[in-house]
Specification:
Length: about 110
């Protein structure tokens, strides 16, 4: 996994944790948390950078959703919170090696 991808995953986990914790405690400072999350993803929120989409759901409703960066560098299409990702074919390469690992840990 590339450094860019690892840092995006880490930022997404941190953002989700921050927003979920604030929402769970009824924190009224969500706008400031939104700004903190936006700062975490600032490196990806550029027209020449592959980006990511982040959504945090609580009780069936979005607490936070936003797209960062570009969905298609060739076409210059930005990622929005409504962007659709076709992940079926791409995720197989990660699912296949995970199954033997899951089976191994299930036995022990």
């Amino acid at each position: 996994m590339s450094v860019l991808c690892r840092s995006a995953v880490a930022a997404a986990i941190l953002a989700t944790t921050l927003l979920s914790a604030a929402s769970a405690h009824g924190d009224d400072s969500l706008p400031s948390l939104d700004r903190k999350v936006d700062r975490l993803f600032a490196a990806y929120d550029k027209p020449d950078s592959p980006g990511c989409a982040l959504g945090v759901v609580r009780d069936g409703n979005f607490v936070y959703k936003r797209g960062y960066g570009t969905a298609s560098l060739e076409l210059g299409v930005p990622i929005a919170s409504e962007s659709v990702f076709y992940m079926g074919s791409i995720s197989k390469q990660f699912t296949a090696p995970s199954l033997p690992t899951l089976a191994l840990f299930s036995v022990t």
